[in-house]
Design goal:
Structural class: alpha+beta
Distance between the termini: 16 Å
Low-confidence stretches: none
Order of helices and strands: HHEEEHHHHEEEEHEHEHHHHHHHH
Number of helices: 16
Mean pLDDT: 91
Length: about 425
């Protein structure tokens, strides 16, 4: 265990040394860091204890790319004949990602996920840092690391954060434009029933400790964290639940599930957040109120449409959703539009308990899902829904996992986990689960 910790510290030192040297604009950085890492690699190789079945095959050289240049690193190579598997102890201990140092890999992933395209990331790295990395290299690095990032999002929860008065959990879905082969068998909204996009679920968790002078809820600063998944709702729900548990859901005095009224999210609430208060987003409620009024009046251009929509808004905020339903039903009795009105009213009939907005506001709760709506636009849409983009599922999933981790301010935690995972490959006695 002591050796494990020492090697993890070595990998961390590699990142910090690169950043320090580049910030100082130290000209001999390339040769200096190369010498230091070669020395570290030699010490790691000398101390390495091969696992059963591993045989040392000699020394192998590799050209390593860092954030300030390239250098040659020579290290021991081991091969396990039974597993047909090779291993470089120094690479694992130093946290190398292929032929890149951990600092360069981290920067490539950050730029590749943050910029609107890999080409822009390439230009940004070259212009700002003088780092030569092609768009294709950046894409490959994002896909290499993104697989681990998605798995990290879905990891089982461990000890959560401290108790909070109110915790909010919210989920939504949005379509990501996909390549044709990725859409085989998926039903869509095109005239022929085909789809142009594939649905991805996004979820967020945030907390609230207080209200303002007017009793309006105040979201805790930088308390929002995100997860994403192309899986089904039955796969996404548990993933979002694990995130809530990591955030301390078990100790929260009250948990609120903010949804848009979709039946799949309602089901997720029952199965994964059974003790939460479910609230349907007020904006979506007003959207559906508009559909009811359009069915009642025949058109949005009716002179009474706007006034009646404002009336619905006021009455919804006074817990009068049941009265509105009865009034609309009575208004269309015996008329040709009765069936259409009843269909649109179904949204309210199915969500009466989730639309007690007056009560919810009186208790100081949020009644809007603006946080996750914004997350879908900034985390997903800003990167994966640009003009002309068509993704593979893995391509989008991996880059969005990195964006969720970044938006959650957890990059340092993820890269530490990533480094520890590399270093663990050198442990001759892996810890039992």
């Amino acid at each position: 265990m002591a050796r494990f910790g020492a090697q993890a510290a070595t990998g961390q030192l590699v990142q910090e040394l690169e950043i320090l040297v580049r910030t100082a604009i130290f000209k001999p950085a390339n040769s200096l860091v190369g010498l230091l890492l070669q020395s570290a690699a030699d010490q790691i190789d000398a101390a390495y204890q091969p696992k059963p079945g591993q045989a040392r095959k000699g020394r192998v050289s590799i050209c390593v790319d860092g954030i300030f240049g390239s250098f040659v690193l020579t290290r021991d190579y081991y091969y396990h004949e039974g597993k047909k598997e090779g291993h470089y102890p120094a690479d694992a201990a130093l946290g190398l990602e292929g032929t890149c140092t951990p600092a360069l890999a981290r920067l490539m992933c950050l730029e590749g996920a943050d910029e609107s395209s890999y080409q822009k990331a390439e230009r940004h790295l070259q212009e700002i840092g003088g780092i030569e990395a092609s768009a294709r290299q950046i894409q490959r690095m994002v896909q290499r690391v993104g697989v681990a990032a998605q798995a990290w999002q879905e990891r089982p929860a461990q000890s959560g954060e401290g108790a909070v008065p109110v915790m909010y959990v919210s989920g939504d879905a949005t379509g990501v434009p996909m390549r044709k082969e990725e859409l085989a068998g998926i039903e869509g909204k095109q005239e022929d029933g085909s789809a142009k996009t594939r649905m991805i679920y996004a979820g967020c968790v945030f907390t609230q400790h207080k209200t303002d002078e007017e009793g309006q809820p105040v979201r805790d600063h930088e308390s929002t964290t995100y997860v994403s998944s192309f899986g089904t709702i039955d796969e996404f729900g548990p993933c979002l639940r694990q995130e809530a548990l990591r955030r301390g859901m078990a100790l929260a005095l009250q948990v609120i599930l903010l949804v848009d009224g979709a039946s799949c999210l309602e089901k997720m609430g029952r199965t994964c957040f059974s003790n939460a208060i479910q609230i349907v987003d007020f904006f979506h409620a007003l959207e559906h109120a508009g559909k009811v009024l359009e069915a009642l009046l025949g058109s949005k251009n009716h002179p009474d449409y706007e006034n009646r929509l404002h009336l619905w808004a006021r009455e919804l905020l006074q817990d009068q959703v049941e009265q509105l339903i009865r009034r609309a039903q009575a208004e269309c009795v015996g008329k040709a539009n009765a069936q259409t009105v009843e269909k649109e009213l179904g949204y309210f009939v199915n969500n009466v308990s989730r639309m007690q907005y007056g009560t919810f506001r009186g208790r100081g709760f949020f009644i809007g899902s603006g946080v996750i709506e914004a997350g879908c636009k900034t985390v997903i849409g800003a990167r994966c829904k640009q003009s002309g983009m068509f993704w593979s599922r893995k391509g989008a999933e991996n880059i969005l996992a990195l964006r969720c981790i970044d938006a959650s301010r957890r990059l340092a935690q993820f890269w530490k986990y990533r480094l520890d995972t590399h270093v663990a490959l050198n442990d001759p006695l892996p810890l039992a689960a």
